[in-house]
Write a structure and sequence with these properties.
Chain B: It comes from Kribbella soli. Chain B: This is FAD-dependent oxidoreductase. The complex is a heterodimer of chains A (329) and B (544). With 329 residues, chain A is of the alpha/beta class. Chain A is built from eleven helices and nine strands. Classes of the chains: A alpha/beta (329), B alpha/beta (544). Strand 2 of chain A pairs parallel with strand 1 of chain B, so a sheet runs across the interface.
């Protein structure tokens, strides 16, 4: 009989850790000595995906850099809930200036460190989707163009949630916000990962809070490069998406399993790897649990909008090859 | 709040502080609580094994600890790993995901490891000075003896057969259960100080109840049920139980080349497969209902078919002659009961083996005051005690499914209650936690992994010898198989709760210690409970 290689420990590589794994094979988050870059006492809502995503990314960055990292934060939920004066939840060096200038400030920090000869200290810029795809886009594009040595991380929750759930350039097609009460009709919005790739910067990747191993791998990989890097993390928002606080990770998982959010990485503007969909599901499974899409399933169901969202997901699946094809070559 | 301080720069009035001062636990309306739910395998095990727990030890590669955990409930892991009908695997939640965990194959691996490494059980309880008689050295009697010995009682087991094992030796054919395994697992019980008195008949229970402090009766069901089949003078009709027992004692049954087996239970399959091995070119099972309604377990039927056994469903034997039988075709009525059709057929058969079920020989208890007999079996209460004080009974002679595993479970249950009775106490079974059903799990986290199959002898060798049909797993395969377990309802220390909390409100206590909730900061979002793979966290409402 064929010998089966023991390649997983019970819950395989999908869980955070496992008592049977060697410590160096566990995730950063399984470590009791993790930095907890964003520590408790912060004022994020219950089940906040962004608080989770920021800790995941920065803890991985801190491990990758031997705790030599500086963070520059754009205005947004993440900044507001973590630093109500005079408290701070940050256990990393952290700087905040304005809403739209975080990439430029990060560039300046990197330049200052370089001027002082501190090449060992790495710079991470971060912000929400509003500060990234709308307000900070000019500064970010410049940072990409100059190939400044900064990892910029966008935590995408699809709207201006801090100020009361207004539509952003990353709000998905059909979603209700306070400024699109009948549902966002601007289709899929801006895909900043593709915009970043168009700059041919060394490294671009997408990830979600539903796949910690993948997220940590990408944050770590990004630190192996110098120059401009971009990481786009999908972070569900229970408040704006109108989901239960316990569903944050499940919803992010559905976003990838339906093809609504493609997970991939690109080097020098070329896609080098994609995370394949494990159990493909229709977009309806992703939309239905979210209150912001409830109007699509109401008394007058919007089959037209749902099929157009499905078509967008199908396009993602085709473009990125998200489903393993079993064609015989 | 810190005081305003003149050393602050312009317009700054407060000292910088950590958000740790902000106890967000006050937001909470629900709190997560760790709990153990009852895994379906444990729930289904007739011997009451803590399957999930011993599989967890096997996953760690600590086979001895795993084996010892089985031994807490069942003294026959190697036998179980061969003959148990695996209710645990039928109940296994993993079946809904891909295929059930091969619990039985792991159990066999552990049982075989124990035999080859000579692991044994030591009685730690001090002697109680109580004497218990067990009548019948089958799985139920030996299980009771083992559990009573563990509790410090002196046990004597009497059986009129020359060797111990009951149906494990005289009923189950050796190609399913090799005798060296039976010997080894019984020997281990003898070494614990259990007295085995073989070839000794118990004729008077009244005397025994005076000589001993309690008696456990487990004489099994060894009498083949007869059917009145009109038969010619030279017809050869044998009963299955006697034939199998004779074979085990070294006799060579004369069945001829064409054998008709009458009945549809596991014994019928055993006989038909045995007949093939004894050289019968034709072994035909004649059964009055359909395959779906056969009491035989599916795996037995499949293996019999593999070995070339033929089946005649919906048929009864109405006449047996010297070299042929006459069968009548049946049809099932609305209630599923077979009805004659009046259509007849002839079938070549040199002999007919009756496998129509077994009855218990109840001569011992028939005249004992208080003992109630109904439907051919002895009635017992929840403590496994008969209506006669101090006389307990179990195994095939009491109501219940007649399998080795059920018998072992009866033995354990009886031992617990006999032990309590001897101390003038009552045994209280711990409360059963709620069942860990599939919908409690978050199966996303389990890697896809099909079951590891045990190798089987090829059919040509199966029908020419009594060699064991199903082989064991290797250590590596057993480890892989154990790690397919989803640990339903019990924390497996995967760190998911610790990882997914947006508020760092889970405290990891270290290996084997599990986790604790930091209620100062837990906002009660419920992510830990939702993302727990094994369903070992629940959310409860905070009191206002």
């Amino acid at each position: 009989m064929p010998v089966q290689r023991i390649k997983f420990y019970q819950t395989g590589s999908f869980a955070v850790g496992n008592r049977l794994l060697d410590p160096d094979q566990r995730s950063v988050q399984a470590d009791t000595e993790r930095t907890n870059s964003l520590t408790m006492g912060h004022r994020a809502c219950q089940g906040c995906g962004e608080a989770l995503g920021a800790r995941y990314v920065l803890d991985a960055v801190m491990r990758a850099t031997g705790n030599h990292a500086v963070t520059v934060n754009a205005t947004g939920c993440l900044e507001v809930f973590s630093t109500p004066f005079p408290e701070s939840s940050w256990r990393v060096p952290w700087l905040h200036s304005l809403f739209g200038n975080a990439p430029a400030v990060a560039t300046g920090v990197a330049a200052a460190l370089k001027a002082k000869g501190r090449t060992d200290v790495r710079v991470v810029g971060q912000g929400g989707d509003g500060g990234t795809v709308d307000i900070g886009l000019g500064c970010l594009s410049g940072m990409f163009e100059r190939n400044d040595d900064v990892l910029y991380v966008c935590y995408d929750n699809g709207g201006y949630m801090n100020t009361g759930v207004q539509r952003s350039g990353a709000t998905p097609h059909g979603a209700v916000t306070t400024t699109t009460p009948a549902g966002n009709s601007f289709r899929q919005g801006k895909s900043l990962p593709l915009i970043a790739m168009a700059h041919r910067i060394p490294y671009v990747a997408t990830a979600t809070v539903a796949d910690l191993r993948d997220l940590e791998y990408k944050a770590t990989r990004a630190m192996e490069f110098h120059g401009a890097r971009y990481l786009h993390v999908l972070v569900p928002c229970p408040l704006g998406w109108r989901t239960a606080s316990s569903e944050t990770i499940q919803i992010a998982r559905l976003a990838t399993e339906t093809g609504s959010f493609p997970v991939f990485e690109a080097v020098d503007g070329e896609v080098t790897d994609v995370t394949r969909i494990r159990r493909l599901r229709p977009v309806e499974d992703y939309l239905r649990p979210q209150g912001r899409f409830a109007h699509l399933f109401g008394d007058t169901p919007r089959g037209d909008v749902i099929s157009s969202i499905q078509a967008e997901a199908d396009r993602n699946i085709r473009t990125f090859g998200l489903v393993e094809t079993t064609e015989v070559s | 709040m810190p005081e305003a301080n003149s050393h602050h720069p312009y317009a700054i009035t407060l000292d910088v502080g950590s958000s740790l001062a902000n106890k967000t636990g006050s937001w909470r309306t629900e709190r997560p609580v760790y709990l153990d739910r009852l895994p379906p395998c444990n729930d289904a095990c007739p011997a009451g094994e803590n399957v999930q727990e011993w599989v967890a030890r096997a996953e760690e590669g600590d086979y001895e600890a795993a084996w010892r955990q089985i031994m807490v409930d069942n003294p026959f892991p190697a036998i179980m790993g061969r003959v148990c009908y695996r209710p645990c695997e039928t109940a296994c939640n993993r079946a809904t995901l891909d295929e059930p965990v091969g619990i039985n194959s792991i159990e066999r691996f552990l049982g075989d490891e124990a035999i080859s490494r000579g692991w044994s059980v030591v009685v730690e309880a001090p002697p109680t000075g109580k004497n218990v008689l067990v009548v019948g050295a089958g799985p139920s009697g030996l299980s009771a003896a083992y559990h009573l010995a563990l509790r410090g009682h002196q046990v004597t087991v009497r059986d009129d057969s020359p060797e111990a094992g009951g149906m494990m030796r005289y009923g189950i054919p050796s190609y399913r259960l090799t005798r060296d395994v039976v010997d080894a697992e019984i020997q281990r019980i003898v070494e614990m100080g259990v007295r085995l008195e073989l070839g000794t008949s118990v004729t008077d229970l009244g005397d025994a109840l005076v000589d001993f402090d309690a008696v456990f009766l487990a004489v099994g069901a060894h009498v083949g049920r007869r059917a009145d089949i009109p038969a010619g003078d030279s017809a050869r009709i044998v009963d299955a139980v006697s034939m199998l027992a004779g074979l085990a004692k070294g006799e060579q049954p004369l069945l001829g080349r064409r054998v008709a087996v009458y009945g549809g239970g596991n014994t019928a399959m055993d006989v038909a497969r045995t007949a093939r091995r004894l050289g019968a070119s034709d072994a035909i099972v004649v059964y009055r209902r359909t395959r779906e309604r056969m009491p035989a377990h599916d795996i037995e039927v499949r293996e019999a078919l593999d070995e070339g056994v033929r089946m005649r469903w919906l048929s009864t034997i109405v006449y047996a002659g010297a070299d042929r039988v006459r069968i009548e075709k049946m049809r099932l009525d609305e209630s599923g009961f077979p009805q004659p059709t009046g259509e007849f057929e002839e079938l070549d058969a040199d002999s007919v083996v009756l496998a129509l079920g077994q009855q218990a020989d109840l001569a011992l208890v028939r005249d004992l005051p208080g003992v109630e007999i109904a439907d051919g079996v002895v009635q017992v209460d929840g403590r496994m005690m008969t209506g006669h004080a101090g006389l307990f009974a179990g195994g095939d002679m009491v109501p219940g499914e007649r399998t080795v595993t059920v018998a072992v479970g009866h033995g354990k249950q009886a031992a617990r209650n006999i032990d309590a009775w001897l101390r003038s106490a009552t045994y209280e079974h711990p409360e059963r936690p709620e069942l860990a059903t599939y919908d409690r799990l978050n199966t996303w986290y389990y890697a896809d992994a099909p079951a590891t199959l045990r190798p089987q002898l090829d059919v040509a060798r199966r029908i020419t010898s009594f060699d064991e049909v199903t082989q064991g797993l290797t250590a590596e395969n057993a480890l892989f198989e154990a790690r397919r377990c989803m640990s339903c309802g019990n924390c497996l220390e995967c760190d998911n709760c610790f990882g997914v909390c947006p508020d760092n409100a889970i405290i990891k206590l270290g290996p084997g210690q599990g986790y604790e909730i930091d209620l100062d900061f837990c906002k009660g979002c419920g992510l830990c409970a939702a993302e727990c793979p094994s369903g070992a966290i629940t959310m409860i409402r905070e009191r206002s």
